[in-house]
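A common beginner's mistake is to predict each chain separately and then try to dock the pieces by hand. The better habit, illustrated here, is to supply every component at once so that their relative placement is modeled jointly.
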Amino acid sequence: MATTASMPTERESRQHGRFSLSNGAYRVILTVGAAIFVALALWFLYAIVSQARPIFDQLGVGWVFGKVWNPNHNQFGLLPFILGTIETTAIALVLAVPIGLGTALALAYLVPPRVKATLGGAVELLAAVPSVVYGLFGLVALAPIWRAHVEPFLTSVFGWTHLFSGPNDGVGLLLAGTVLFIMILPTVVAISRDVLAVVPREQVEGAMALGATRWQVLRKVVLPDARTGLLGAFTLATGRALGETVAVALLIGNSDYIAHSLKSPAATIPSLIVNNFGEASGTELAALFGAGLVLLVIGVGVNAIARVLVRGKTGAAGGAASVAVA
Amino acid sequence: MTTDSFTPADIEDDVNLSTGEVFPDRSVGHPVMQLKDVAVSFAGRTAVRNVSFDVRDRQITALIGPSGSGKTTLLRALNRMHDTVRTAKVTGQVLLGDTDVYAPSTDPTLLRSRVGMVFQRPNPFPTMSIYENTVAGLRFNGVRKKSLLDEAAESSLVAAALWDSVKDRQKAHASTLSGGEQQRLCIARALAVEPEVLLMDEPTSALDPIATKRIEELIGELKNRVTIIIVTHNMQQAMRVSDQCAFLLMGEDKAGELIEFDATAKLFSEPDDARTLDYVNGRFG
Amino acid sequence: MTTLTFDASTDPILERRRQIQGIARASVSRRKTYSKIALGICWATLVIALIPLVAIIVYTVVKGIAAWNWTFFSQPTKPEGIPGGGIWNALVGTVIIGAVATIVTIPLGLLGGLYLAESDGRIAAAVRFTADLMTGVPSILMGIFGYIALVKVFGYSGLVGAFAIGMIMLPIIMRACETAIRGVPGHLNEAGLALGARRFTIARRVIVPAALPGILTGGLLAIARGVGETAPLLFTIFGTLYTQWNPTKVMNALPLVIFNDSSSPYPDQLQIAWGAALLLMVMVLVLSIGSRLLAAHLQKERR
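With all components supplied together, the output reads:
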């Protein structure tokens, strides 16, 4: 650790020719660094907005909610893709919230200390697996299982809800949503566990001392205390799910129409861009940028809300998990 | 204390699980808690040992001694708070009435409804209102009837000298109370379950002198309702408040042990052990 | 011991105690069962959560190892349907693009992080907020930004891909640096000031070394993230069959290979996709685990 005894004086620095900066110059360099970042961010925003501008000039704002996407007929409705984005994210959340929360509770309060560190570390590492690998896994390993087993099973059990009409393709909303769930699970677990673990020990002991069972302690004291932070964890995971591109593009079947059932192929805004950007030009290109703008607003908005919720509960932005996963 | 009058308040009950009968159990001065050669160790390292004494019914027993002597560790052994610490081991015998606290057949959850605890720093549940905090223990133990909850809440808030200030704002959050009030809320919360014994772990050390004084008065008043065992590092507090004292001291091997147990008056004026004399005369702290 | 009968109803406290104890005892087994079930469900969710996560790792390892041979590592990618391809060009691309992105974003991120850690005004708050917002931008948008900003002007190249990836890494590194630097105890800074040292010197000799574990962790995690991203590369580096070492030209990269080959009907291509997936996963995990070990090691040395 650097000690004060090794601090060179100013004269020493100059004598030995060591590089140093005056306080003013130092400050300028730092500010320039930050300014470069801000400039890049603004450039990014400007680029997206200005590229999207033509479509808004032409079609106003209503096109965002249009139902048909058909560039050949100059129709650019975004609704199928907005719905697809929401639907895949919803499936992922419906699975991730209970399973992630239960896992986080187990990791924070039930698992013995030695195992806790290993398992917790393992979960955080899994957050780093690249999304394209999830896509490959989903496409090659899971899609056949979905087609042959999962979808028929669900259709037979839940067909009456009209959510499971149509052929069993394997790819589609259900598969994409499920793989998305696997992808956001580490995020949910890691942050939830952090939030649950910082509930003050004295609260837990106070409840125990009154004669509460372990579950009563968790349910009546720990969970309410962690409410806000947990909401932040779920929101952060939602943000990640909304922006997920590659895995979803591989698994969602890519149809430009609004899905009728959970088994249908569909598309999300990211998958729309991925599939069409390469050959788009003119108005279609502007429409894709417009779609990107919509995605930006949604994704960034959700992420901002999440950070506010998580920061309050665990201090430094929820630890490494949320830094790398964003 | 040593009277022979048999008023109903002197009788302890025990409920027969299968028949639901109530039969009276004790008379005045019968030990409500007995410690026999109790020792607590963590991962093989002894924290406190050789503790034997009886806690008389409706008396205030203080555990005193310098820091590190194991007072809090001992206190927490009495309501099995060490159960959640995997490396903890409690030996010896702790009897609550006729119940062996550490017998396998004794349920810790039920035990803690009979032996309550107040902690050093006030710990009301922040997401609950004052009322909800007060009845939290009752709810944990399965009590649902509103009339019983209300009755117990009022009784314990009165006993904690908090009723007048909060009776009109019981729905307010516990965090709106001052530190001293929060601690009294915690006391009320512990009392609402009507425990037989109340353990207090340095309940005033986090409070200012005025709040401390009020709580000490409170403790004196609570004597007739519950048996109190209080850990304190403040000798004057022990003198003011307690009937009996247990003096613990950390030995050479860093393990605390019971040096002397006696009536407070005697312990502070003519203790048997030289080390006790040194401590109460402030020769080490 | 004298036993007495008495009229319990004369003492409300005792009466209440009896009632409460009665209710407590009667309900205890129900409460404990309920607790056991609820906790059991939590354990079950833990197992459920681990299954897919373990499955993915095992599957990728099994399938990917089968692809790992000398050809795989030494040959560049071949067109679909032609056997004998490998990922050498993609590996070169990933490493070079990653290196370029890292070389630019780490220093810039450190400067930004220092700025944020040392400033508290409204402007700094706005910058911090911007950084937080930028970490939430979907990566596909960085890809199309790179396209419109640079490809239109300079054409497809590895540099544009590095730019897009760098845009993703930069805010992460900035915030990680800020957190690490803010974590350094204030008295170190004060001691330096008291000696009359300049802020730059203090930063260079005291603060940054002290914050190094956090900075390295954040940096390595950001690199792991950047290297694994696919979407920013889709419209920026174009892909190629050649092994290209020059980042100013079009390049290939591992995520791109996986993405393109995963829907291929040719089993050769599919196997290469698995091999590439395993390779990428290993690289990312090595960086992530490495960052943790490094941080722990440095922390230990400082004690």
